[in-house]
Amino acid sequence: MHLPRAAAAAFAALLLPFTAHTATATAATVTAATAVRSEVRAAGETVTLAVRDALGRLPVRVEDRTGYERSKFKHWVDADKDGCNTRAEVLKAEAVIAPEQVPRCALSGGQWYSAYDDRYIDGPSGLDIDHLVPLAEAWDSGAYAWTAAEREAYANDLGDARALIAVSAASNRSKADQDPATWLPPAAGYRCQYVADWVADKTRWGLTVDATEHDVLADQLSRCPDAPITVTLAR
Questions:
Q1: How far apart are CA 233 and CA 235, in angstroms?
Q2: Residue 132 needs a FRET pair 20 to 30 A away by CA distance; which of 97, 112, 113, 155 works?
Q3: pTM tops 0.85, yes or no
Q4: d(Cα 217, Cα 149) in Å, to the nearest integer?
Q5: pLDDT value of residue 114
């Protein structure tokens, strides 16, 4: 299928090398990025790829956390002005047993499944809403160059159910801002889903991976089905 020339050009720009803030990890990475540039698509388009193929298309770059501050990613916001902020929206969407909602979107009761550590959590107070790809990791991987509005959209992404996940506070704080090279969910049975979702989230937002992260993801995915992922590109 041939894409409109403008659409192809718009999204191809996302895979062009970033500024001197980051460096290309290997010559092979540049070659691979060049090879797929003609196949990339525009923001707002939905793409489906085998997960290992999707990983292979993520640019490999050296990461740099210079200038990162969590406050540069505004959250949690009430984007649709319905009285419930992003945290509450995720809790309502992911509840196994629906919580009671009272005025100002305060939630009580209910039950959730924390996939990271394979346990059920009663009541919202024991839960954190995790950015699957942490804010600091997103910054390292390209968000340093985004506008404030783009970072806010990323931090409150309700457009893809993989981006934000309700998990036990203990597991989320154990993970902190680590990528899969240094942290994987304690629940081994969830790891294939976790790394596939990680690749999907980075694909959605046009983020990069560092060399070690790439290799660990590739190793993990080699033990998993090469399942297709479907992603609507955010940028």
A1: 6
A2: 97
A3: no
A4: 29
A5: 98
